[in-house]
Write a structure and sequence with these properties.
Layout: H1 4-16, E1 34-38, H2 43-53, E2 58-61, H3 65-77, E3 82-85, H4 89-98, E4 106-108, H5 113-122, H6 134-160
Parallel strand pairs: 1-2, 1-3, 3-4
Keywords: Membrane, Transmembrane, Transmembrane helix
Transmembrane segments: 133-156
Length: 161
């Protein structure tokens, strides 16, 4: 016969194997795959557009063209890296001219809200977090339903015996 202590241990074991659900997408490491190249004057605008769209894109404020070139060189090695440039556009255009193979993953746009939104859409990062709070809500309901049915079945079996 199953007692409450065994049921409690089973629930703890199952809870330990659950993966948390996040409403804000995947947390990225230092090797971000979607970035925006900005400077002090364009960084705030780019960040506000990213927050408004709810996408998983990191906005970097660069201080020099050499730093931008160094970051663009990482796009040569990482085929998943997508870059939107709203600052240092001449440097980025020159880099794309030298390396046309990355032209589909590096886009240069003007520093205005509509251009940044269209650039993010072209890079296919526009709907990364469109689920909002619905995903964790449905996940929680599903987990609760499964646990409820399991505990209810054990309880009813115990009552019948």
């Amino acid at each position: 016969m199953i007692n409450l202590k065994q049921i409690g241990i089973l629930i703890l074991i199952l809870a330990a194997f659950m993966v948390p659900v996040s409403a804000h997408g995947v947390h990225v490491t230092t090797n971000e795959s979607n970035i925006i190249i900005a400077d002090n004057s364009t960084g705030k605008l780019a960040k506000s557009v990213v927050d408004q769209m709810g996408v998983n894109v990191t906005v970097y404020k660069f201080a020099s063209a050499d730093d931008v070139t160094h970051e663009l060189e990482h796009a040569l090695e990482n085929s998943n890296k997508k870059i939107l440039a709203v600052a240092y556009t001449d440097t980025v255009q020159q880099f794309i001219g030298q390396h046309p193979e990355v032209s589909s993953r590096i886009i240069v746009v003007d520093a205005n809200q509509n251009a940044i939104q269209q650039g993010l859409t072209k890079l296919n990062v526009s709907g990364a977090n469109s689920a909002g709070f619905l995903t964790p809500l449905l996940s929680g309901l599903l987990i609760g339903l499964v646990f409820g049915l399991g505990i209810g079945a054990v309880w009813m079996k115990r009552k019948l015996v």
